[in-house]
Amino acid sequence: MRVFHINSVVNTGSTGRIVEDIGRVLIEKGHQSYIAFGRDLGSLQSTSILVKIGNKLNVIWHGINTLLLDNHAFVNDFATKKLIKRIELIQPDVVALYNLHGYYINVEYLFRYLRKKGIPVVWTLFDCWAFTGHCTYFDNIGCIKWKTSCTECPKYNVYPRSFVDNSRKNYQKKKELFNNLTNLQIITHSNWLRELVSESFLGGHQIHLIHSAVDLKIFKPTNFKLSNRYDFLNKKILLGCANIWTDRKGFKDFLNLANMCKSDTIIVLVGVSQDQKKLLPSNIIGITRTENTEELAMWYSLADVFVNLTYMDNFPTTNIEALACGTPVITYNTGGSPESIDENTGFVVEKGDLIGVINSINILMKRNKDELSINCRKRALTMFDKETRFLDYIKVFENSI
């Protein structure tokens, strides 16, 4: 079986690592894997055959068009035509789609080609962009326009940011294009997103729930080598991780949380920029973004609690990375984030309720740390082992043919 994957990135970030790992499992099972990507390439060597879509100029041009015309993912005609020629040469049995937003591809050209050729398509959705006229998430403002027809979008000026609102036309074009594929199957990583998809214009397609997963050989309770770099003696450590820290990810909330913490508590934020580091109070340690998964595992293991103050998310991989390292999780009641934990491995708090966060931290600090760690690791082993979860992907690919 030849599987041709398309994603914005490969081998970097959560989605890029997921695509790479699915490709690796395919190859280990005797299949062929190709990954086409439009943006970033991670530093690790890929096991799949890589296909680059366009170049930096295409991304810039796509960004300008999105900004001026709100036609995101309907740009980059030439780069998409070249991609289609590669697909023609490879003749895949299945095309696996992932993030199609990200300033790199023309979905109109791609989907018309896929319909014409009748190639089975399996689309993994990480957010809501596929069934809205513009945005990736709408739950933070309670918008329900996507259920019927997007218009007068209240979020046209956020990612993918535009100066104008073209949401009605985008919605209709997506609805027509995506539903023209009769052999399309959809995968979501959370029950939260699966339910939303079932209520959208994509609800007529078969939808599979496959929770995201991590490498439990890397993300595991690890020796605290990092403690040699910092003075953590007799300190409680709260950890937050993000690829990019924004208010959506809870950056401001962490600044406010720092003012509420006891003097024996240190917050560590992984993924901050150099400018953001300058804004941090003395009880927050800022670590710039790292692709070193072993180092991330050490941070997770060192922390007493992983705190996820995200306001918009599907199924954050950081939650299960923390659990795999034996660290309990406190998360806002956002998207599918609460699905990663249970009553033995953390707490769910309503968005913005920092008092609730502090109370949850205090409860966890009083619990037996070894017992907590065992419960967290057990949940990761049971539900989030990528060697098991990614075999579920292969079953979907095989059944789609």
Main β-sheet description? 7 strands, parallel
* Overall pLDDT confidence: 95
What coarse outline follows from CA principal-axis ratios? globular
Question: What is the topology, as strand order, of the major beta sheet?
Answer: 3-2-1-4-5-6-7
- Name the CATH homologous superfamily of the largest domain: Glycogen Phosphorylase B
State the separation between the terminal residues, measured CA to CA.
Answer: 9 Å
The total number of structural domains is 2
Q: What is the CATH topology assignment of the largest domain?
A: Rossmann fold
Binned, the helix content reads 25-40%
Based on CA atoms alone, the radius of gyration comes out at: 21 Å
By DSSP (H or I, 4+ residues per run), the number of helices equals 13
CATH 2nd-level architecture of the largest domain: 3-Layer(aba) Sandwich
- Low-pLDDT parts are none
**How would you classify the helix and strand content by structural class?**
alpha/beta
Portion in strands: 15-25%
CATH class of the largest domain: Alpha Beta
Instruction: Let me know the number of strands.
Output: 13
Q: What is the H/E order?
A: EHEEHHEHEHEHEEHEHEHEHEEHHH
Structure description:
By secondary structure, the chain is of the alpha/beta class. It is built from 13 helices and 13 strands. It folds into 2 domains: 227 residues, Rossmann fold (3-Layer(aba) Sandwich), CATH 3.40.50.2000; 159 residues, 3-Layer(aba) Sandwich (Rossmann fold), CATH 3.40.50. Helices cover 38% and strands 15% of the residues. A 7-stranded parallel sheet has the order 3-2-1-4-5-6-7, with helices on both faces. A 6-stranded parallel sheet has the order 10-9-8-11-12-13, with helices on both faces. The model has no long low-confidence stretch (mean pLDDT 95).
